[in-house]
Amino acid sequence: MLNIVIFGAPGSGKGTQSALISSKYGLHHISTGEILRGEIENQTPLGLMAEEYISQGHLVPDQLIIDMFANILDKTANSKGYVFDGFPRTISQAQALDAMLRERQTDVTAVLSLSADEKELIQRLLKRGELAGRKDDNLETIKKRLDVYSEQTEPLKEYYKKKGKLFKIKDGSIDDIFERIAEEIDRLFFQHGK
Ligand code: AMP
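# adenosine monophosphate complex -> structure
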């Protein structure tokens, strides 16, 4: 099983690249942000709890996210592999993910880390705010999300680096980035003998 974590700051292109990976390799794409936005739209109890955190640029509490994520993994048990997009975002989520995958006799194959400079990230997110109307894509919330990323999420790079699972993908156009990602995944497929 190939389980890819697509990692990076808000606006680094995780969603775009995850969709491309999932369609090329037939992996199941799980975006915790997308799922949460669906929950909010449907005004579910989880959506109602999450809305405030998201609109302020904070992370939704770990246990809520981990339970939601476990539920999705259970529902997609036949998948031949996953692209995890926006999860894990904290060390405790990463540990929970390790445990969940271990229970399923599998593990995180690789963490592909996207990068972009901060000015570029802010410009992209502001543009997305205009085009897609995401409420959390306004300057104040974007800045908060970038702070939260460097404080709570970026330390995961070290966590995965120690396990030899972190692969940095150089920034570029959408196509360039995808080409670099595909090279990495092809190599991983080869190593996994699939
Ligand atoms: P995203 O679409 O990945 O940018 O996520 C949008 C927002 O959803 C984030 O700013 C968080 O408030 C929340 N969120 C998404 N994934 C997670 C996660 N793994 N842990 C906590 N909060 C999350």
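# post-check
Residues 115 and 171 are 6 Å apart (CA to CA).
Residues 10, 32-33, 36, 53-54, 57-60, 65, 86-87, 89, 93, 136, 145 surround adenosine monophosphate (CB under 6 Å).
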